Amino acid sequence: MEKIINSIIDIDKKTKKLNLETEAVIKNRNLDLKEKINNLEKQSTLEAKTISEDLYKKIIKDGEDEILYLETKDYSSLKKIEDIYNNKKEDLVENIFKSLFLLKE
User: Fold this and answer.
1) For the segment 32-87, what is each residue's pLDDT rounded down to a tens digit?
2) What pLDDT score does 13 carry?
3) Cβ neighbours, 10 Å, residue 75
4) Mind listing the pLDDT tens digit for each residue in 15-32?
5) Cα distance between residue 69 and residue 63, in whole Å
6) Residue-wise DSSP of 17-74
7) Which of 16, 28, 68, 73 sits at a 20 to 30 Å CA gap from 58?
8) What is the rounded CA–CA span in Å between residue 80 and residue 86?
9) DSSP string, 68-99
């Protein structure tokens, strides 16, 4: 009977030891998983930051290109208007002068 009791106590001790070892393994795995998750979050954040910076730079570049295009287009239009005015200036002044004198008469 004593042998059976000692066997049960021995089994109980081994079970307790195995239980503690299992808890330690689970705790270590949880710590490893948390570390891996943190690393993945950091990596994802860095990748997202890089992607957003690249996108921001592209948007700024596209905007600057559009501004340059519009400035060039506006300058071209303004130059055409100025050329037309310079070509028609004499006729305009003469017509206005005639119109003013015709109104007075």
Assistant:
1) 999 999 999 999 999 999 999 999 999 999 999 999 998 888 888 888 888 888 88
2) 93
3) 10
4) 999 999 999 999 999 999
5) 10
6) HHHHHHHHHHHHHHHHHHHHHHHHHHHHHHHHHHHHHHHHHHHHHHHHHHHHHHHHHH
7) 73
8) 10
9) HHHHHHHHHHHHHHHHHHHHHHHHHHHHHHHH
Tokens of 65: 């290109």
User: For 7-37, b where at least 16 C-beta lie within 10 A, e where not — what string?
Assistant: eeeeeeeeeeeeeeeeeeeeeeeeeeeeeee
How remote is the C-alpha of 53 from its chain's centroid? 5
> What is the amino acid identity at position 80?
K
pTM over 0.70? The answer is no
- The residue with tokens 């195995």 is 18
Q: Which residue has the higher pLDDT, 102 or 30?
A: 30
